[in-house]
Amino acid sequence: MKRPAWWPARRRPSRLSLRTRLLCLSVALVAVGLLGTGLLVTTALGDYLQDRVDERLVLTGQIAARLAPPAGIGTPPSVQALSVLGDTTVAYLDDDGATRRAFDASTAPPGGGPELPVLNRADVLAQEGRPFTVPAKDGDGAWRVIALTQPAQVFPPDRADARGSVLVATSLDEVDRTITQTRNLSLTVGAALLALLAAAGWFAVRSGLRPLTRIEETATAITAGDYSHRVPELAASDTEVGRLTDCLNQMLDRIDTAFQARAQAEARTRRFFADAGHELRTPLVGIKGYTDLYRMGALPTREDVDQTMTRIAEESERLTRLVEEMFLLARLEEGSGAVGPEREPAFALDMAPMDLRTLAVDALHDVRALDATRPVTLTGPGGGKPATAPAVADEARLRQVVTNLIGNAVAHTPPGTPIRIGVGTVGPHAVLEVADQGPGLTSAERDRVFDRFYRTDDSRTRATGGSGLGLAIAHGLVTAHDGRITLDTAPGRGCTFRIALPLPCGETPSA
After folding, report:
1. Most buried residue, 2, 16, 305, 381, by CB count within 10 Å?
2. How far apart are CA 433 and CA 381, in angstroms?
């Protein structure tokens, strides 16, 4: 797409670092400030000195206007007395502007003296006694001039009709030298001060941008794959750098957590596929082996065929059960991601009012059926008398959970190990416990006991290993009921699985 003519051109990125640009900008601002201040000071000083010169010039002109033009040759003493006021020139004019007499208070006036204009009486009156500036004769320097008319009383009585004017000029060389020296001094001091500020600014900007440098180092480390790096706190949290540091560290924490979660999810997925492939391959290999025996004619008798078909049926049932458990677990995990009231969960439950005591009593009978020699008791949560535990739940699914817990307690504890089944309410929850006095689990095993395909002994035999999905399904089913299932265990202290479901609305929680 062609850029329109009115569209501003894209600016090229600056090749200068931020530190250099900030320093250059600061030095430029200081230089402009110093130049502006110097200009203002020299201008004000020049105006002040010129006003002082004008005051002296007006006084000198008034004195000279009261003196009659002296006769003779040489500078009269009255004019020489004006030399204390500086380089001064006095010219007496007639009414037509012709010079009657001119005197210099100094022997060598600067610039050869002033270039006095020709002023008749009307021109002098038009000046109204205001000083004005004229150049020197050789063009080097300037003079301030005042033109005044002389009163008739100044002249002798025999010349009462005579009138004239006087021009008094004072050199501005002293003023110019003072302003020049002041300007040179300002430039010298300003340059030195600017160099000093530039050096101090370099260290100040470097120190001020140190947090950004640390942020850059942290970003580089993260780019290299080290997600544990964090920006150190180099400023207070109420400053811009402090708030930026806090935001970046929070962002890095979330990124690190997300990467760790993704890595864990990928690891779980790889393990899931590996374990699922192994679990599915075991019955499939058995079925394939039996069918190969049949095709090769290795089953000569009807009894051999029937026995082989029975084993194929057992492996098929095991394969079917494993696939159904995996499908159920996938639906549970998909349903746990349902968000919002308008989205229906992928796993639906047949919820109805029930009492967990029913499941506890059935679990008691299941233990006796599985191992009639094993002691089993029915108590309340943690001991005491069993109590009612109302809940709104899917009884069939909860029965599946309890059956799995009972089966694990019987299968993974030595014969004769006591089992306790507890039921009742604890706070705002209906609770059902399955506790045994077996060998127990370590903390690492406890943290992974609800993972898919996890088995504490890593056994893969059908007798003791199982599929490793039972507790994962139990956790998913209880979570689908808005409840939680926990395990309290330690080596040598047995295992206590506790199911806690919220009480129905209107039920009074126990104390």
Report:
1. 381
2. 7
Given a contact cutoff of 8 angstroms between Cβ atoms, the answer to whether 283 and 316 are in contact is yes
Q: Is residue 244 part of a domain?
A: yes
The answer to whether 172 and 53 have CB atoms below 8 angstroms apart is yes
**Please, what is the angle between helix 302-335 and helix 470-480, to 10°?**
40
Q: How far is CA 132 from CA 47, 88, 229, 477, in A?
A: 13, 15, 76, 106
- For residue 210, give the H/E element and its range: helix 210-223
pLDDT in tens, 207-216: 777 777 777 7
Rounded Cα distance between 170 and 146, Å, is 9
Angle of helix 210-223 relative to helix 240-295, nearest 10 degrees, comes to 10
In a domain, 48, yes or no: yes
Based on the domain organization, do 288 and 360 belong to the same domain?
A: no
Question: Do 33 and 167 fall within a single domain?
Answer: yes
* 210: in domain: no
Angle formed at CA 259 by CA 257 and CA 264, multiple of 5 degrees = 95
Task: Tell me the pTM.
Answer: 0.48
Cβ neighbours, 10 Å, residue 489: 22
Q: Find tokens 């600014």 and name the residue.
A: 201
Cβ atoms 147, 127 nearer than 8 A: yes
How far, in Å, CA of 384 to CA of 363, rounded? Answer: 18
- What proportions of the chain, in percent to the nearest 5, are helix, strand and coil? 50, 15, 35
Per mean pLDDT, which of 148-162, 249-263, 456-470, 487-501 is the most reliable? 487-501
Task: Answer yes or no: do 85 and 126 share one domain.
Answer: yes
Distance separating alpha carbons of residues 402 and 358, to the nearest angstrom: 11
Confidence of residue 391 (pLDDT cuts 50, 70, 90): very high
Pairing of strands 352-355, 376-379: unpaired
